[in-house]
């Protein structure tokens, strides 16, 4: 728990004003909670005619005698009304005191809750923002072994669990212990022997409850991991719904979801069973204590006569008043375990270090003037090398194409050039600057990336393009769409560029989505274009339109084209044929055809498709 609170402390410090005010109002709430019970004793004394008669108005002797002065002054006022046969007015006075103390108790409780709300919501929003920032900043390699649903569960479900469970400590850490301390202090003042029984109850209840909830944290962690798997199943189902339906695989995914949901049900029931035990256990222990108090206190009132019956009733109310905060603390101990396991999962993401940070002295690349050099690089995602001693140069203004069979390492070049991953050996440089020694932001600002998958966001066409250039004018957007051969279908839409593309751009065809992706890259207007199999998923007609758009875009730019369809790169300045991570052949189209090697075979195979 200490470790979690230490990690939360930097976030809490931003809201220290609310922490201070919450503590102040909780102290006042706890004080007036005790006073509200104590104020019932004068009312009971009036009702049962047990008021200690004071006939002389008390004198103020200083702050040290405040309690005696207040007590004597109240008895003096009440006595004067009782002596004048005006018991009703005496009763009004003591009832007014009861109402005022209860009103102040609730007012301070309300103010304390308001400030803990500001603190809790503020801290959790900051946590969520920082977590999202880190999710965005972490390299792609971080997500290669993780399910998206699990990450989503952490930023949504686990942070919500922290709000519902862990942050209850901030509400209870001051108020409930103070309620118990103030009540116990008053009870010891009234009768120390009776108070001993209450002191026995609190640690006994705490021990029993801690034994019951011993395994709760590990179960909560398992439940949260299962929740992540459940969300992943839903996310994968929605993403691949066409495949699920076309292969009649609904039953497979339904069973997978039901099995996960049933595992989560069992865990939730087990956790809930232990959570629900906290209240009854503390209630039974509390009523047992009250029963012992009634037996022993009744003896002191009726037999030993060392305490007034009205005072004993007030004492009993104080004792019972301790049960509420004691129950709240015992229930919180269960819920806190849920929150701790959620917090562990949140902070695992939040504190995960970026394995590809910018170097402290990283420079800003503001332009591209000469060439891209890939020098003797080797790279592996896990165990086997994907690229081996690979070297090429791409002069400014030239188009270099990478071709080869699937798994030959073509797309890996795009990932390394944009620094989604870092090379294991060798280096990549732009104008002689090792890209590891420049900021990733400035590096990527020089590049436009068009991938095989046309990634569009559920927003308007305009806002999807503005990702490339936030301050672009409408005229610039339309010009980019024209270059990408996309304006022809957009200008006929009722809302034009304000049309929503739908989830993942599904309101448009594959060719249309790809042309929008190209328009986004055109609008960015970078000096270097990286095209990662930009036409491989398209039909012949769409490919022709997209290829024309690509040719328009690549004019006067340096381009690295990763191609599956060789018809799209015949005019490249140089073609690199890759095989198992190494360069097998390189040259222009006609030169490679004349070699009658791998490239020629690839061309011949595609000519029959």
Any overview of this molecule?
By secondary structure, the chain is an alpha/beta fold. It folds into three domains: 2-350, ABC transporter transmembrane region fold (Up-down Bundle); 356-446 and 528-609, Rossmann fold (3-Layer(aba) Sandwich); 459-525, no CATH class. It contains 23 helices and ten strands. Helix 11 packs across helix 14. The relative contact order is 0.08. Residues 20-338 form the ABC transmembrane type-1 domain.
Write the topology of this structure.
Blueprint: H1 2-13, H2 16-38, H3 40-47, H4 66-83, H5 87-137, H6 140-143, H7 148-166, H8 168-172, H9 175-190, H10 192-212, H11 216-239, H12 241-246, H13 250-304, H14 309-350, E1 371-380, E2 385-395, E3 399-404, H15 410-417, E4 425-430, E5 433-434, H16 440-445, E6 447-450, H17 461-466, H18 474-483, H19 487-490, H20 510-524, E7 528-532, H21 540-554, E8 558-562, E9 574-579, E10 582-587, H22 589-595, H23 598-607
Parallel strand pairs: 3-8, 3-9, 6-7, 7-8
Antiparallel strand pairs: 1-2, 1-4, 4-5, 9-10
Helix pairs in contact: 2-5, 2-9, 3-5, 3-14, 4-5, 5-7, 5-14, 7-11, 7-14, 9-10, 9-14, 10-13, 10-14, 11-13, 11-14, 13-14, 18-20, 20-21
Which shape, going by the Cα principal axes? elongated
Indicate the CATH architecture of the largest domain: Up-down Bundle
Please give the alpha-carbon distance between the first and last residues: 64 Å
pLDDT < 50 stretches? none
| Approximate strand percentage | 5-15%
Helix count?
A: 23
Total beta-strand segments: 10
CATH homology superfamily name of the largest domain: ABC transporter type 1, transmembrane domain
Question: How many domains would you count in the coordinates?
Answer: 3
Structural class: alpha/beta
Biggest β-sheet: count, sense, barrel?
6 strands, mixed
- The level 1 CATH classification of the largest domain is Mainly Alpha
Radius of gyration: 37 Å
Which percent bin holds the helix content?
A: 55-70%
CATH fold-level assignment of the largest domain: ABC transporter transmembrane region fold
Lateral arrangement of strands in the main beta sheet: 6-7-8-3-9-10
Overall pLDDT: 78
